[in-house]
Specification:
Elements: H1 3-12, E1 18-19, E2 23-27, H2 40-54, H3 59-72, H4 77-90, H5 94-99, H6 103-107, E3 139-144, E4 151-158, H7 162-165, E5 169-176, E6 179-187, E7 190-198, E8 204-210, H8 218-228, H9 233-243, H10 247-256, E9 263-269, E10 272-279, E11 282-288, E12 300-303, H11 328-337, H12 344-351, E13 360-367, E14 372-378
Parallel strand pairs: 2-5
Antiparallel strand pairs: 1-14, 3-4, 3-12, 4-13, 5-6, 6-7, 7-8, 8-9, 9-10, 10-11, 13-14
Length: about 375
C-alpha cells in the first residue's frame, strides 16, 4: 500500500488535506554534537518563536524548569552531547534545550479537566500550569486485516500549540555504517523518539501516548523519579530501537525497564501487537491483539490517553475530540466496529474522523510485515 494511494482515498472521502513529512538522516556514527546540524536552517526560526512566545518573558516558569532539570543532573553522555550541539548551533540557552527533554514526563500533569481532578500540581510547582504543550489527544490502533492476516498500526499524534508543533515535525532516519537502524517521527529540538519503526522480518513499531497518573501521589512520584536521574522515557525507547533486534525483545525491554512517568507503549510487529499501560516501576495493564480484551473485537486493540479498561471517568470529560461525554476512543470504535475488515483505508479514515482527530500534528499507518511507513501531517 503506497502513501499516495492512501492519501488519494482520504481526499476522496473528504478528510483533511495532507502535507508530507520531511526526512533527515541522523548518523549515529557522527559526533553527537553534529548530528542535527542539517535541521537547524529548517527549524530554528520556529523553535525561537516557541521560546520567545512562551518562555523568554516567564522567568518563574523557566527558573522552575531549570531547577527540576538541574536536580536531575546530567543526562546520558551521548544525550548531553546532542543537547549541547543543538544549543550551540541554535543559540538557545543550553538549560532550556536540556529541560525541554522532559516534556513527555511533564505532560502527565496536564489533565484537561477544569475543576475535575483530585491530583493537583504539588505545592511549589504551580508555574508548570503555564507550560504551553497541551494534551491529551493521541490515538493508537493496532488491527489485523482478516482478509490477509497482515497487522497494521495507525496513530494520531496530537500536540499543542499546533501552530508551532506542526512546523517542528520530521522523520529521523537513524543510521550506522550507512544503513538504517530505525526511523522515528521526531520534534525538532527533542532528541528522543515519539513514533518509531524498525524494519525486519521480526521488526517492530512503537508509539508513545501520554498516560495520566491513576492514584493520589502519582504526580509526586513522577517528580521524585525525574529528580532521581532515571533515564527519560523517550531515551529508553530510543535505546530499545537501537539495541533490541526483534519484537519480543523490544516488548520485554519496555516492560521491565523503569520509566520516569506513566505512559502507554503501543507496539506492533509481524501479525502481532500489544499495548502496555506503563507505571514507572511496573506494567499496570496489557492488551494483546487476538486475545480477549475489554470492550474490543479480537481483530484490534486501541488506546487514547485514559485507562478505559479501569473505567477512568476522566476520559468522558476530555474535550479534545470535540464532544464531552463521547470520547475519542468511543468515536474510533464506532467506525472500527462498523467495518467487517480493518484495512489500512479503514484505519486511515478512523484516525481522521472528526470525533477522533484533535490537535493532530502527525499521522501514521504502518505495517512491519509489508514495510509500510505511511506518514503525513493534516492541514487542520
Amino acid at each position: 500500500m503506497k502513501l499516495v494511494a492512501v492519501i488519494a482515498l482520504a481526499l476522496a472521502a473528504g478528510v483533511h488535506g495532507r502535507r508530507a513529512v520531511k526526512e533527515y538522516e541522523i548518523n549515529l556514527d557522527a559526533d553527537p554534537k553534529d548530528r542535527y546540524l542539517e535541521l537547524l536552517p529548517v527549524f530554528n526560526q520556529t523553535v525561537w518563536g516557541f521560546w520567545d512566545k512562551f518562555f523568554a518573558n516567564d522567568k518563574e516558569l523557566t527558573d522552575l524548569l531549570y531547577k527540576i532539570s538541574d536536580e536531575r543532573g546530567a543526562e546520558d553522555p551521548e544525550m548531553m552531547a546532542e543537547i549541547q550541539g543543538l544549543s550551540d548551533a541554535s543559540k538557545l540557552p543550553f538549560e532550556f534545550v536540556k529541560a525541554i527533554q522532559m516534556l513527555y514526563e511533564l505532560q502527565t500533569l496536564m489533565v484537561p479537566i477544569v475543576n475535575f481532578t483530585t491530583f493537583p500540581l504539588p505545592k511549589g510547582y504551580e508555574a508548570l500550569a503555564r507550560i504551553p504543550w497541551r494534551g491529551p489527544g493521541c490515538t493508537g490502533i493496532i488491527a489485523k486485516d482478516t482478509s490477509t492476516g497482515i497487522v497494521y498500526h495507525a496513530r494520531d499524534l496530537d500536540f499543542s500549540p499546533v501552530p508551532f508543533m506542526t512546523n517542528l515535525v520530521y522523520t529521523g532516519i537513524f543510521t550506522k555504517g550507512g544503513k538504517e537502524i530505525f526511523r522515528s517521527q521526531m520534534v525538532a529540538g527533542y532528541v528522543q523518539v515519539i513514533t518509531a519503526f524498525k524494519k525486519g522480518p521480526n521488526g517492530f513499531a512503537i508509539e508513545r501516548n501520554t498516560r495520566y497518573p491513576d492514584h493520589e501521589g502519582g504526580n509526586e512520584l513522577m517528580f521524585h523519579n525525574l529528580k532521581s536521574g532515571r533515564p527519560l522515557n523517550g531515551w529508553t525507547l530510543r535505546k530499545v530501537c537501537e539495541e533490541q533486534p526483534d519484537y519480543e525483545s523490544a516488548v520485554s525491554a519496555i516492560s521491565t525497564t523503569p520509566y520516569v512517568s506513566t505512559e502507554y507503549a503501543i507496539i506492533s510487529g509481524v501479525r502481532k501487537g500489544t499495548i502496555l499501560a506503563k507505571d514507572p516501576d511496573s506494567v499496570a495493564h496489557v492488551q494483546t491483539l487476538g486475545q480477549p480484551n475489554f470492550h474490543e473485537r479480537d481483530d484490534y486493540i486501541i488506546i487514547t490517553n485514559f485507562d478505559f479498561f479501569f473505567h477512568d471517568i476522566r476520559e468522558y470529560f476530555d474535550p479534545t475530540g470535540g464532544q464531552i461525554g463521547h470520547p475519542r476512543r468511543i468515536a474510533a470504535q464506532e467506525l472500527l466496529n462498523a467495518s467487517a475488515v480493518l484495512t489500512p483505508e479503514v484505519l486511515f479514515e478512523t484516525i481522521n474522523h472528526k470525533g477522533v482527530i484533535a490537535d493532530t500534528i502527525f499521522q501514521a499507518v504502518m505495517s512491519v510485515e509489508t514495510g509500510l511507513w505511511n506518514v503525513s501531517q493534516p492541514d487542520l
